[in-house]
Amino acid sequence: MLKGDEVEDQAPEGAIVAEGVNYWFVGAAWNEGDQTPRFLADRIWQNGYDDKFSHLVRQMK
User: What is the pLDDT along the chain (61 residues), one digit of tens a residue?
Assistant: First the structure.
């Protein structure tokens, strides 16, 4: 599993981002394994952390 800089929650300086447009890149791999089949069957996406990224997850539409 690769880990990145998980504290960054904004586009890098100088990046071109269209106003009003958000893109979310999420994963489905947890310690329990790949959650993709469950997410697709239940038509959901769920944050795999109890206390990480919660403020960002709440912003998703």
Answer: 345 545 556 666 776 777 877 777 888 988 889 999 999 999 988 888 888 888 888 887 7
Domain ranges of the chain: 24-61
Whole-number Å distance between alpha carbons of 23 and 17: 10
Residue written as token pair 């310690």: 31
SS3 content of the chain, % helix, strand, coil (to 5): 20, 5, 75
Residue with tokens 């239940």: 42
pTM reported for the whole predicted model: 0.52
